[in-house]
Amino acid sequence: MANKTAPDSARRSEKSRRAIYDAALALVGEVGYQKTTIEGIAARAGVGKQTIYRWWASKAEVLLEAFLDLSAQAAEAAARPEVVGEHAEYEIPDTGDLEADLKAVLRATVDELLDPKFEVPSRALAAEGVVNRQLGTEFVGKLLEPQLQLYVKRLRAAQEQGAVRPDIDPRIALELFVSPLAQRWLQYTGPISYDYTDALVEYALYGLAPR
Amino acid sequence: MANKTAPDSARRSEKSRRAIYDAALALVGEVGYQKTTIEGIAARAGVGKQTIYRWWASKAEVLLEAFLDLSAQAAEAAARPEVVGEHAEYEIPDTGDLEADLKAVLRATVDELLDPKFEVPSRALAAEGVVNRQLGTEFVGKLLEPQLQLYVKRLRAAQEQGAVRPDIDPRIALELFVSPLAQRWLQYTGPISYDYTDALVEYALYGLAPR
């Protein structure tokens, strides 16, 4: 909608910005974080280096925004945004059935993790984050943690509804189903599928011990 | 014991082998997997390149054995080996108290993950494995999976003892407490401590839902 009434200069800027994001994600996926440069991104996007420096101070900043944009696109594709003020915010659905809601969101995550458009640049960035604590911490704080906080919110609602024990720390609890999927994806420790994430949710909610 | 009666040549070989392992682990921690070379390992270990090629075909093979040796040292330090035939094998203790046994082994893992001797080379290798599927799969299969199978064995014993539900898949179940710790360590998604791993074990065994 906004584009229809935007002036030409704004539309050109938006087009350049998108070209820069695409170039940055493609390049980091191909050559890795270390060898990705502002010059390389500019050349691939077909813009001048100064165009990039006008908007961002470093390649880390370009990549951070490119990933935020990629996540927003994925969320939009999954039709999960709720527009709040100017920002699209994302929520884990609350149908009152925690097990079903968690299974649905984890199934969507499986699809995203297996989408090459997401997977290739994400792996490059994750690999750098493992050995570069500053980058890892910054990207996790800005990209991953906000997504994890959606689980915290949903689990808190479940606690209020009596579906999760009140003494559970939701920030730790979410890791019982999120981290196994993340590790299988990151480290190739096993296949990922809907059956797998469904099992994780069931095991986490009802425990391994006999009830 | 064996060293006392070993001929001088065997003792020299053992000394060279250990020097090569140490050099390989130090180098990969400093410059990463990509920039680690047989030449660099040989120079640092003070041996000829041919000495390395006599025993190993590639840097991946040297590093794999160096990590296996490092893990064996860590396990010996934790006094967990049971000598079976010629090989030291490692087991998760079975005191009959699954919760206590899992907490103990995860606390030992926290110590290992925070030990720089283990952490620095392990991060370098893990980072490469994220973007290099062949290497990741090989190293996980030879280094990580055998450790995960110790949990499978302990959980199967727990199923026989009635402490874990019989319909649970132990290979998935172990991920509820192992993967969260792995992800916090790999991706800096949160602090790791004994309290944290204790909580993971409790949540996994008894579930998040009210009982």
TrEMBL record, chains A, B:
<keyword id="KW-0805">Transcription regulation</keyword>
<dbReference type="GO" id="GO:0003700">
    <property type="term" value="F:DNA-binding transcription factor activity"/>
</dbReference>
<keyword id="KW-0238">DNA-binding</keyword>
<dbReference type="InterPro" id="IPR009057">
    <property type="entry name" value="Homeodomain-like_sf"/>
</dbReference>
<dbReference type="InterPro" id="IPR036271">
    <property type="entry name" value="Tet_transcr_reg_TetR-rel_C_sf"/>
</dbReference>
<dbReference type="GO" id="GO:0000976">
    <property type="term" value="F:transcription cis-regulatory region binding"/>
</dbReference>
<keyword id="KW-0804">Transcription</keyword>
<feature type="DNA-binding region" description="H-T-H motif">
    <location>
        <begin position="37"/>
        <end position="56"/>
    </location>
</feature>
<dbReference type="InterPro" id="IPR011075">
    <property type="entry name" value="TetR_C"/>
</dbReference>
<dbReference type="InterPro" id="IPR050109">
    <property type="entry name" value="HTH-type_TetR-like_transc_reg"/>
</dbReference>
<dbReference type="Pfam" id="PF00440">
    <property type="entry name" value="TetR_N"/>
</dbReference>
<protein>
    <submittedName>
        <fullName>TetR/AcrR family transcriptional regulator</fullName>
    </submittedName>
</protein>
<dbReference type="Pfam" id="PF16859">
    <property type="entry name" value="TetR_C_11"/>
</dbReference>
<dbReference type="InterPro" id="IPR001647">
    <property type="entry name" value="HTH_TetR"/>
</dbReference>
<feature type="domain" description="HTH tetR-type">
    <location>
        <begin position="14"/>
        <end position="74"/>
    </location>
</feature>
